[in-house]
Amino acid sequence: MGNEQPEIQLQGLHYLTGDPIRITIHQGRIDSIAPLNNLEVEQQQLPWVGPGFVDLQINGYAGLDFNSLPITPHTTSRMTRALWKEGVTRFFPTVITNSEEAIKEAVAAIAQECEEDPVAGDAVAGIHLEGPFISPEDGARGAHSRLYVRPPDWTLFQRWQESARGRIKIVTVSPEWAEAEDFIRRCTDAGVLVSIGHTAAAPDQIARAVAAGASMSTHFGNGAHPVLPRHPNYLWEQLAAEQLWTSVIADGFHLPDAVLKVVMKVKGEKALLVSDAVMFSGMQAGTYESHIGGKVVLTPEGRLHLAEQPQLLAGSVQMLLKGVSHLVRRGLCSLGEAWEMASIRPARRLSLPVSSGLQPGAPADVLLLDWRDGEVAEPRIAGVYKNGVSVFP
Ligand SMILES: [Zn+2]
Hints:
Number of domains: 3
Family: Belongs to the metallo-dependent hydrolases superfamily. NagA family.
CATH class of the largest domain: Alpha Beta
Keywords: Carbohydrate metabolism, Hydrolase, Metal-binding
Shape: globular
Distance between the termini: 26 Å
Structural class: alpha/beta
GO molecular function: N-acetylglucosamine-6-phosphate deacetylase activity
Largest sheet: 8 strands, parallel
CATH superfamily of the largest domain: Metal-dependent hydrolases
CATH architecture of the largest domain: Alpha-Beta Barrel
Strand order of the largest sheet: 5-8-9-10-11-12-13-14
Number of helices: 12
Helix content: 25-40%
Number of strands: 20
EC number: 3.5.1.25
Bound molecules: zinc ion
Radius of gyration: 20 Å
CATH topology of the largest domain: TIM Barrel
Strand content: 15-25%
Pfam family, one: Amidohydro_1
């Protein structure tokens, strides 16, 4: 069977500069990028064009879930394709705190699908294991089940990694455990990114975790105590640690704009967006039964919280595009910067080939986005190309 793909040409406004460009795609890669002349531009309303979104933390979407066991067959394959319409072209299925057997089953199922379905295998850039080596404390633990929270255990992690066929690339850990430093060092040596999250760690424990190789903060400012000593505390310590990249949920519910602004100012190119979307994303408002802490409520505004404790969020139902639009609407950054926070920055942190973005030679994971002042109020995904193939609409 021939694999020769026809050459594709896309026209749009460069997501960083706003300049009209023509992108030529050949054999799944960006071949060239050239400016459009004025005559060509006037003939049409051009969409924005930029790199596909990369989501480092996604638990589920539209009823599909990586954490409800037994995992429904084809969850990873279906998720891969469902996420195209959200502009997500690479992602990290996220498996959260659970029993040893449950985590094993979840990561094994994802890995198996990645091997059986090359499309999923390409889109899934790795598995994110969020827990169970996190804080047992209320608030810090967030919606994770206390029952299964445990100290970091390298032998146990290796068993999961074996079940995942080496696909666990990110692990979220709290450095408050005595075992954390050694665990972080071993993960880092093995090429697994350690992210600090769901933590009640003392500032010196954060500092030691960073020295041991921890290099990111998981949804900074969430999975945290409602009340903290003003200083010192684990938030300041992570903000001040220059080695730490910082992921934030910018859906308008998880963090006030002031926190987003400070994170972006302090972290610069190391600030990035995650969705942390759960299976209720894309579903109707209502009360649902969740495997994490019983009933959850999805409000008509799109906020998901624990039914028993409305002040505690139970993950997000907004995808990366919403985060991009929130940052831009609130005047926190330009479209170009927000777009990079949702695409090449996460890709760069994980050293993915798509981190080069719109450059000749890069994999052609490309989005077209409709968003014009006064005309198109909410940004809308107008087209998605995955390795140079049109996959949406
Ligand atoms: Zn979390």
